[in-house]
Structure to design on (320 residues):
């Protein structure tokens, strides 16, 4: 029995040692590739100094309204993620994509991710980039909480919200967040294990959107730098408290057009995800819901319909 026990111990230690060696090799390989990819990681917009770190803001187009795109949780490259949609709108509108700390070309920090800090940084970066309100906000997923808070705190700055399958506060009351799994995801990204599975870097923007080959390559380079960053982790830690604050100050008195997916990719089934959106719209005085039969990144999959419906919505709102 002692021999069996020693043999099993030997096997266990060998496996652990092999695993640690594999992690070490992965980390060294990851750092080498990051260094090599530096020449491709070039901001497409401007870097704004906010709270002692740099926030990336991308703008294009002209028009009397500024459409502000706000990304969902964990989207590696918001500027490229929204491109398929904003490229259809920038002929008639000013476009601005604000990449939060830890996203895209913005710097990674360990700063607090309470809703007031997030909104303060977004507004400061936007204003320093030369954008002028009032704004039409286009939030995806988790940034729906930021957009609603913006409308609550600074109603004169927000003309309308066009939700791109945005999350409403009640979602986070029901959602169970597996923090150990989230932290494991950060570890996997930090050691470069995401490079073992190339399919992970293939976002919906790359699969369904209108990105060029060069843009797809830049998205992939960004993915390996901006996946499960410390800021993203801190956002997840704070999201339930942030959503609760926003919920307590509902409803908001601005026009809203919400595009909602079939729930795939949200962590909830269709009946719950769409049901939460319908209940939310029913409690608002000037809101409309459009259901789309596609997964969570609606702005990549149904960009043409969303652009057309959004344009009509804005025109009707301006003609009132």
């Amino acid at each position: 029995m002692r021999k069996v026990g020693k043999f099993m111990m030997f096997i266990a230690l060998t496996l652990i040692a092999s695993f640690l060696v594999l992690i070490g090799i992965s980390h060294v390989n990851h750092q080498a590739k990051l260094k090599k990819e530096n020449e491709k990681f070039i901001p497409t917009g401007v870097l704004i100094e906010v709270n002692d770190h740099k926030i990336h803001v991308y703008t294009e187009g002209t028009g009397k309204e500024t459409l502000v795109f706000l990304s969902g949780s964990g989207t590696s490259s918001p500027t490229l993620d929204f491109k398929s949609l904003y490229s259809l709108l920038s002929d008639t509108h000013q476009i601005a994509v604000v990449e939060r700390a830890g996203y895209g070309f913005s710097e990674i920090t360990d700063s607090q991710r309470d809703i007031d800090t997030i909104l303060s940084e977004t507004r400061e970066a936007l204003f320093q980039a030369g954008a002028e309100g009032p704004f039409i906000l286009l939030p995806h997923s988790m940034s729906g909480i930021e957009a609603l808070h913006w409308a609550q705190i600074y109603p004169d700055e927000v003309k309308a919200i066009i939700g791109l399958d945005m999350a409403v506060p009640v979602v986070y009351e029901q959602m169970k967040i597996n923090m150990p799994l989230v932290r494991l995801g950060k570890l996997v990204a930090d050691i470069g294990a995401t490079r073992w599975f190339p399919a992970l870097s293939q976002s919906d923007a790359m699969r369904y959107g209108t990105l060029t080959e060069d843009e797809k390559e830049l998205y992939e380079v960004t993915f390996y730098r901006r996946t499960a960053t410390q800021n993203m982790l801190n956002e997840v830690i704070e999201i339930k408290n942030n959503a609760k604050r926003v919920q307590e100050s509902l409803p908001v008195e601005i026009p809203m057009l919400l595009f909602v997916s079939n729930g795939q990719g949200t962590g909830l089934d269709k009946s719950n995800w769409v049901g939460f959106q319908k209940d939310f719209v029913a409690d608002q005085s000037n809101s409309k819901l459009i259901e789309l039969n596609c997964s969570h990144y609606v702005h990549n999959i149904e960009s043409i319909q969303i652009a057309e419906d959004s344009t009509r919505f804005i025109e009707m709102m301006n003609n009132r």
The mean pLDDT is 91.
